[in-house]
Amino acid sequence: MTLLDLTRSPSSTTTWVPVCNRLELEPLWGEAALVGGVQLALFLLPDGRVFAVSNLDPATGAAVLSRGIVGSRNVDGVQRATIASPLHKDVFDLETGRCYTSESLHLATWSVRESDGVIEVAQRTALVAASHGTSDDDGRRAVAALVDAVRTANPAIDVLDSFVDVQQPDVPETLGTLQPDRPAVVVPLLLSAGYHVHVDLAEAAAEAERPVRVTGALGPDPRLATVLARRLHEAGLGEGDRIVL
Fold this sequence. Notes:
CATH class of the largest domain: Alpha Beta
Number of helices: 4
Structural class: alpha+beta
Order of helices and strands: EEEEEEEEEEEHEHEHEH
Distance between the termini: 31 Å
Radius of gyration: 21 Å
Mean pLDDT: 87
CATH topology of the largest domain: Rossmann fold
Number of strands: 14
Number of domains: 2
Strand order of the largest sheet: 2-3-4-8
CATH architecture of the largest domain: 3-Layer(aba) Sandwich
Helix content: 10-25%
Shape: elongated
């Protein structure tokens, strides 16, 4: 499981958001909806099942999936409900988001339930990327590139920038921008767990007016040590030098 997976699966504390009445949906026709600031496309199948997926085309980011073509595909002897993008005709599984025409693409999906005739979707958890913060321009660009890569990997997830020191906004301020009761997961973009993870971020999560989880830091990890050693040698580290981290 990756950090992105933490934002996808409903838990016992899932917030369900009413979207529309079942009677407002027409079989095989998509309906666009805005849930928690995210564009969704809802589809009612002739057999009564309702699916919710991102309205954003994974290949282009265009909000067009609600105008896609509903179909089916035989996968290992099982008929799977699908949606074909109206742009590049990529075909996605309505339940899992798997792309059958391009392995590099994936369509974000939402859990759906019906309550007294009202279609509800599970509100997605916001991902708060909490880096240390720096006044160095190169460092700022490096962190921004990492966070942007996460956004690109799944545009349907709200990925928010925050910092524990030096830069703004800090984590409490970022959490405060979310809609009431919307859950969040804070990912410390730090090389190891220390005061910021165990105290600063833990306190921010405890004081937030919403369910907030804090994941582990990115390190320590042997790969980080390997990169550090390589960078030190590239910088001209000598046998008699001492390293201060």
